[in-house]
Amino acid sequence: MVSADRKYVCFQSNYTKLWRHSYTASYSIYDLEKGDFINMDIPHEIQYLAWSPTGHKLAFVWKNNIYVKETPTSAFKQVTADGAHNLILNGIPDWVYEEEMFSTNFALWWSPNGRFVAYARFNDSGVHNIEYTWYGEGQYPETVLVPYPKAGTPNPTVKLFVFDTNTSRTNEVLVPSVVGAGEHYLSTVTWASDERIAVQWQNRTQNYVVLKTYDFNGSAWTESSLFSPDEPVFRLDGSSCYYIMSNEEHFKHLVYFKTKFLTKGKWEVTSILKVTNDAVYYVSNEHNESPGQRNVYKITINDASHSERECLTCTLNADRCKYNSALFSTEGTYYLMSCSEYLIVPISFYLFVSEGPGLVLEDNKDLENTLQNIAMPSVTHGTLKIGEFDLWYQMMLPPKFDKSKKYPLLIDVYAGPCSQKSDFRFRVGWSTYLASTENVIVASFDGRGSGYQGDKIMHALYKRLGTYEVEDQITAARHFIDMGYIDKNRIAIWGWSYGGYVTSMVLGAGSGVFKCGMAVAPVSKWEYYDSIYTERYMVTPAENQAFYDNSTVMERAKNFKSVQYLLVHGTADDNVHFQQAAQISKALVDEQVDFDAMWYTDEDHGLGGSSNQHVYTHMSHFLKNCFA
Description:
Elements: E1 8-17, E2 23-31, E3 36-38, E4 48-51, E5 58-62, E6 65-69, E7 76-78, E8 88-90, H1 95-102, E9 108-110, E10 116-123, E11 129-134, E12 142-147, E13 157-164, E14 169-173, H2 177-180, E15 184-193, E16 196-203, E17 209-216, E18 221-223, E19 233-234, E20 240-246, E21 252-258, E22 269-275, E23 279-284, E24 295-302, E25 305-306, E26 310-311, E27 323-328, E28 334-341, E29 344-352, E30 356-362, H3 365-372, E31 378-386, E32 389-397, E33 407-413, H4 430-437, E34 441-445, H5 455-458, H6 468-482, E35 486-496, H7 498-507, E36 516-520, H8 531-538, H9 545-549, E37 564-570, H10 578-590, E38 596-600, H11 610-627
Parallel strand pairs: 33-34, 33-35, 35-36, 36-37, 37-38
Antiparallel strand pairs: 1-2, 2-3, 4-5, 5-6, 6-7, 8-10, 9-10, 10-13, 11-12, 13-14, 15-16, 16-17, 17-18, 19-20, 20-21, 22-23, 23-24, 24-25, 24-26, 27-28, 28-29, 29-30, 31-32, 32-34
C-alpha cells in the first residue's frame, strides 16, 4: 500500500485469515526518499490498517481498539480503549456485520482531507455465542466461541463516532429517532465532503432505510436537517418535494428534490462506477436484452440536464466481451476496463476517458493458446417459460455434442435471493471438467427470486424461502428433458451453501425427477442462520413461524429414500454451522435413510487447501456411480 503523497510504501506480512474478509497481519514501512525501512513502532497482529486519503497519516486497529499516527515515525494516539475480544469491537465489524452488511474487514473511514476518522463501535455482549470444536493437533481439542446472532435472537448494538486528529476529540454521530427508537443497523458510511458525512441506517426488519447527512459545527456532528419538518413537503403529483437543510455555509435553506430517472427499460443498472463533475458512469444489463451480460455506460451531466446514455463497451470486442467492468482513477481521468465471456479468455484494457481505447495491458494470449489444445465445452443460453415469466438458463455442452444422443444432466444450483448463475463471466472449473471429460451436460437456471430481471421476480421469495426457488429447479429439469437430448434416468443436482439447501429441498420434494444430489455446507433450517440475512427475507420467526417451520430440510427426510444423497460439511464452518448438516443427518437416520456423508475436519465454509481438491474428486466419484 502506497501513501497518498507517494512517500511511503507499507508492506504486509504474517497474514492470518480469520473470517471471510477479516485477518490479522504485520506491517513494515519503506521510506521511498531515504531508500530504507523505518521503525514505525506498531504491534504485530494488526486487524486493519489504512493510509489517510491525503498525506501519510495512518489509522490501525489492534486488539479491537483504534490508533492513529500523524506520520509513520510519530507516536500513535489511542482513539479507543474499551475494545475487548468478542465483546466490544472498534473500527472493525463483528462477525455478522462483516458477513452480511459491510462485506469488508474494516469499519473506519477517513475523511477526504485526512482530518477526521469515522468509526463504528459494536457491542456484542448481548449476542449469543456459537460454539464449535477445533481439533488441531493437540491432545485435547479446543472450543471456538463466536458471537453469532441467529434469526430472532439478540443482535449486536452499534454506534458511530468521529475522531478529530487535530484536537483528539471524539463525538458520536447519533442515530435518527425514526429508527433509533427500536433495533437498527448501520448500513453505510460515506464522506460527502471534508466536514459532511452521509450515513444510512435501517430498522431490524430492513424494510425501511433512512439516509442522514451530518455536518461538523466546530465541536460536534449534527444532522443537516436538524431544524427541518419531520417530513418533506410534497407537490400534489408526488413527483418532487421541498425540504429545509443546511447549505455549505451551515445555514438552513430551502432545497428542492425531484425524482428523475436517468435510465428506464426492462433491464437493470447493477452498479455506479464513478461520478465526476461532468459525467456518471455505470454498469447495466441493457444490451441485447440479456440479464447475464454487463456493459459500461456513460451519461454526460450539463448543469441540471443529462445526455442520453452512451455505451462504452457494447461494440468493443463484442465477440468476446459480454461481461464488462471498469475501475476508475481518483479523478476519473482514466479507467481500467476488464471484459470476458464464458469460456473465452478475458481481456483487460487501459482506457483513457477523454481519448478512448488505449494500451492493452493483458490479452491472456498464453492462456488462450493453451486452451486451444484442450477440448473445451460450449455454452448456450436461453429462457424457459414458467408461469408469467421468461426465466434464463445456461447449459454447458460436451465438446462433440450431438443432439441426437442422450446425455446425463447435472444442475448446478445456487438460487438464493437476487443471485444469478446464468451469466457471461469467464469460468473454468469443475463444471468445465465434467462437460469436457465426462460428457455430462451441466445446466444452471435462474428461477423466481433471482436477480437483475426486475423486482417482481426478485421479491417472489419474500417471507417464503424454500418455495418457488425449489419448485422452479424441478420444473426447469422437466423442461430440459423435453429438449430431447437429456437422459431422464440420469439427472443430478448439486449446490454449495444456499445451493446446498436448494439441492436438499429439491431431493426431499419427492418429484421423481432427480436420481441423486450433492449438498455442500447446506442450510437446513433458517432459524439456525444469522439474523441479518435471514430476517431480510423471512422477517423474524415470531412474525413468520409457519414458513420457518415448513422450509426445513428435516421435514422432508422421508422422501430421501428414493434418491442418492451426498452430504458434505466442514466442522469449523463459522458461517453455515456444522449443526445444520448434523440435523439433516439426524433426521435421515431417524427415517432409516441410507445416504453418503463427508466431513472436513477444521475446515470452514469454503473448504480450502487440500480439502478443496478432495471434495471435487469425491463428488466426481459419487456422480459417476450415480450415472453408472
